[in-house]
Amino acid sequence: MRYTVIFQPSGKKAYTDGQHSILQISQEAGVPIESLCGGKGICGKCRVVVENGNEKLPPPTEREIKTLGELINRGYRLACETIPACNIILRVPEESRIDRQVILTTAKCVSAKLDPVIKNIYIEVPQPTLDNPMADSERLLTALKGDHGFHNILIDSMVIRKLPHIIREYNGRVTVTIWDNREILDIASGINDNLYGIAFDIGTTTIVAYLMDLLKGKELSVKAAMNPQVAYGDNVVSRISYCAENPDGLEKLRSALLRCMNTLIEEVCEDAGIKPKQVLESTVVGNTVMHHIFLGLDPQYIALAPYCPVIQSPMQIKARDVYLEISPSAYVHILPVKAGFVGGDTVGVIIATEPHRRDHITLVIDLGTNGEIVLGNRNRLLCCSTAAGPAFEGGHIKWGMRATSGAVESVRVDPETLNVELKTIDNRPPLGICGSGLISAVSELKRADVIMKKGNFNPEISSPRLREGQDGPEFVLAWAKETGIRSDLVITQQDVAELQLAKAAIHAGITILMRRMGLTSIDRILLAGAFGTYINPEDACVIGLIPDCLSANIESVGNAAGAGSCLALLNKNKWKEAERIAQKMDYVELSADPEFNELFVEGMFFKSRHTQVSTPEE
Amino acid sequence: MRYTVIFQPSGKKAYTDGQHSILQISQEAGVPIESLCGGKGICGKCRVVVENGNEKLPPPTEREIKTLGELINRGYRLACETIPACNIILRVPEESRIDRQVILTTAKCVSAKLDPVIKNIYIEVPQPTLDNPMADSERLLTALKGDHGFHNILIDSMVIRKLPHIIREYNGRVTVTIWDNREILDIASGINDNLYGIAFDIGTTTIVAYLMDLLKGKELSVKAAMNPQVAYGDNVVSRISYCAENPDGLEKLRSALLRCMNTLIEEVCEDAGIKPKQVLESTVVGNTVMHHIFLGLDPQYIALAPYCPVIQSPMQIKARDVYLEISPSAYVHILPVKAGFVGGDTVGVIIATEPHRRDHITLVIDLGTNGEIVLGNRNRLLCCSTAAGPAFEGGHIKWGMRATSGAVESVRVDPETLNVELKTIDNRPPLGICGSGLISAVSELKRADVIMKKGNFNPEISSPRLREGQDGPEFVLAWAKETGIRSDLVITQQDVAELQLAKAAIHAGITILMRRMGLTSIDRILLAGAFGTYINPEDACVIGLIPDCLSANIESVGNAAGAGSCLALLNKNKWKEAERIAQKMDYVELSADPEFNELFVEGMFFKSRHTQVSTPEE
């Protein structure tokens, strides 16, 4: 006899001869159902709901009754215990699906199939006997081979140390965490359904850590901190100089970075109520200089022509070898870098925004201390890097701050009265201004003619808000009594100049890439960066960050580099994709482009709206 | 045209069309000739001597003249530079041969082909350009692939840190040290012809380190030290108890061991004038308890039935992960253990003495704190372990000492006068007595009837040498004025009893293995151990260490466990051999044998000579 089994929600149809469990049928049919214990009726992970045909199934087994309890009345069964000899329709509930799509809250429009490089496997290891006193490790590996078909598995040396106790705690019942079907990174007694990873985005100014539950595909905690290396220089070139000029410079920068990362690890773990040693996988993206310092590699040749890094390829490295205080057995996956000034963060931005998978042309701009620009489609990607300065992340701005609670993220200025409306993160009284707030403010002041073409404040305007401050002319966004800082919140002439430098660099970079590709228009523009919630595309056009805003669909996608790091953590296939991107993409060295200087100067101005890419106004 | 090339001393014949270098012809013909630079005429390693046909060869190239100088007049040529279009006879001198046989001074009768797991490769890495700013690592790997055909090579993360400076020092000319054709463990600028490894033998009482030159196959320095763990118990069972009873017991024992090993590393390196960081490979043998403590593995289950270890298989582990202070990138190869009480030291003894390669039956006895016994031939090997106590290594003996300068290593006692003749190591005035000296002394005292059947001193003998001492009866081997210790050198009744316990255990073990194999005679008996220079086989028979001395060819082979460790260092193929031995050999658990106790008691007596194996005298 042949019976039909239909799996919902995919609608996949399979046939059975009445001799196989639902789990076996699903595996045959390619319908992925979670099963930690490998079909032994122990873990209770392979729950399915019978939507049609329940009455014709054999009654629930003792194991099902014990594991499912109440749920049985609602049609739940264990796929590994139920052998259907009838036509049935099943639903695989969200929690039993292996190929769940995960939506990242970190960045817009990004999702990934959950398929991390580590997984948990439950096994029962036989006890040794006088006749066969096989060692603990060998019994474990033999059981893993027999039950799950794993061959040539290594055990991390730190894990072997835990083995004799864990293996005896519940008579050989253990859960091992296996990395890449190759190496055991952890062992726990009994059933263990915890699986955690941390994704890092190491920026020149800001470091972000994302703690993810790799079984559920959920973000558990996100914490950010100022990169403590800012004490040694506020951009990558000054950090390189520090390394080159001080014998212990590299080590100082590396250990400052590691202290910060380890503190973030503690914070996200405390937030989620887990221990750092439970974190068994990590991914890292960072620009090439941060990448090098993290790895203890001298970055000095990055600053010298031909600007070549020490290593470009992706790396797998033990957490203990880079002093990251998660499980010492864990691997850290370091995404590849492209060039001296286009790093793993840009590769992360690409895997999170996927310009390489589309036919139409995408322009991605990652606004950080360095502004990395990627242009292209599935046929070709070009990239370059410009020194944008820390303005977008709140650095060098009088009241600049990171995009956290209390930061001004958008501004409205009444062109008549010059009255100001501020929107802050969490709607708290303003404490400072983040990247998107700065862009919004300057854009509004431009619209209200408070800021003029060259960036100077309009001397003809008379308003108590426009005044001479300690550092020269300044515009008051909020009076002391409206703020949380007991001081007037202002934008200074110097702040505007910082933003002008940044936008000019971006402008020049975009223009050169477009010319290299022979393009005059772009289908889609993505603004990425940890600059705040989201930049208003209008504002980005007004200040001239983007050459020609009208021809494209502009979208602000948030911290895509961080999202890329998370995606690589959630799905190991992103590693190969990242490696291919880094190899295939062409790098443009702006410093070698004869047009760069001219375009940079041109980009300093605030233009009238609706002008074309490369037609400077004067 | 076809020309004949004959390589001496092998006499191998090859043919050439006049288009290929001698190096290419030798590679084709399977005649291994050293070539560090891969045939670039740079390293000067591939020297050959033309014995016949020199006048028909093209004249030496500039490179040959520069590299060989004087030697050219003596017929030397570089194999990579010389293209013969004539019949010639060449000699490959010792220094150019890759497959040199190495004779170990450590133990008798052992030699190995020199084929270590690490090797040096000279390469020239192209400089980066603005058009192709490929990273340092990737340029290195590309060159290694192009010049030497190495694919998928990893670079240890510590080595990557040295890369940017080394690669620029001599314009990309570097020598890399590659482990197992898989991973770069070191990089040096220019040509580097240093290659060092250290073999360890970790005994319960003594630790020995052997520094070897892995290019020349030479022993550079050997140093031994007392295992500092003796402070925590003098045998493996008391060490296990210490670990089980003290929460930090394992860590204390491990760190004491490591301090000692690291001191030995410093000593052998200083002796040879090299730095510990230049040591790029290490091998370790040890009994299972030492093996576990070295690796930080809890040994407590070894002492509990069914006596199973935490891990048996051989391991490759980074030196930095076991805190061994050689190059942090180096691997430590840990030989496999067989069972809880038959460790990697016994496996080392077997690869050094090779009973598994012979048709006739060999009995190998490794005399240490544990006495491990191996019996068999190429068809079958049996092994067991007995607690022999530290007597063979000088422990628990009143004037016992390690086999170093000044130790009594053999004794003659005149049966008439009881005058004593001593032979000491280095012929210095005696400072104490080592294992072989103790066996010799007891054997002579037995011959002279000073020691009686039950081990007690003969009360009927009247001599100033036989007297009542502080610890009971004792026999004076040397008077204070003859010694270097300002005290009479004596053997006490207790010393004799220690030896009796040891020999009884060995006796019982041998007898049980012989019965299991159904043997009544043995073709060859090998005595291994760090007990001194060499035990006199006669003496071993007289004291009854060996059940039936007459039927076998007895040989004393020295520290074969240490030799096994050295062989594994010199030739990577010994690893697989060791693994196969450990898997194939059968382990006999003596504690589970009903005959053990009876045989042990029987073995306590000193028998008349020429008695049979299992016929106790009374």
Runs of chain A in which pLDDT lies below 50 for 5 or more consecutive residues are: 610-618
Helix segment tally of chain A: 14
Considering residues with a beta carbon less than 8 A from a beta carbon on another chain, report the largest interface and each chain's count. Answer: A-B, 44 and 45 residues
Give the oligomeric state of the chains in this entry, treating copies of one chain as homo and distinct chains as hetero. Answer: homodimer
Q: Count the strands of chain A? A: 29
Terminus-to-terminus distance of chain A: 84 Å
Structural class of chain A: alpha/beta
Radius of gyration of chain A: 28 Å
Which strand order do you get reading across the main beta sheet of chain A? 14-13-12-15-17-16
Question: Biggest β-sheet of chain A: count, sense, barrel?
Answer: 6 strands, mixed
Mean pLDDT of chain A: 90
Strand content of chain A: 25-35%
- Shape assignment of chain A: elongated
Q: Fraction of residues of chain A in helices?
A: 25-40%
Structure overview:
2 copies of one chain form a homodimer. Chain A is α/β, with parallel strands linked by helices and 618 residues long. The first copy, chain A, is 27% helix and 25% strand. In chain A, the strands form 7 sheets. Chain A has a 6-stranded mixed sheet with strand order 14-13-12-15-17-16, with helices on both faces. Chain A has a 6-stranded mixed sheet with strand order 28-27-18-19-20-29, with helices on both faces. In chain A, strand 13 and strand 14 form a beta hairpin. The C terminus of chain A is likely disordered. At the A-B interface, helix 3 and helix 4 of A face helix 3 and helix 4 of B.
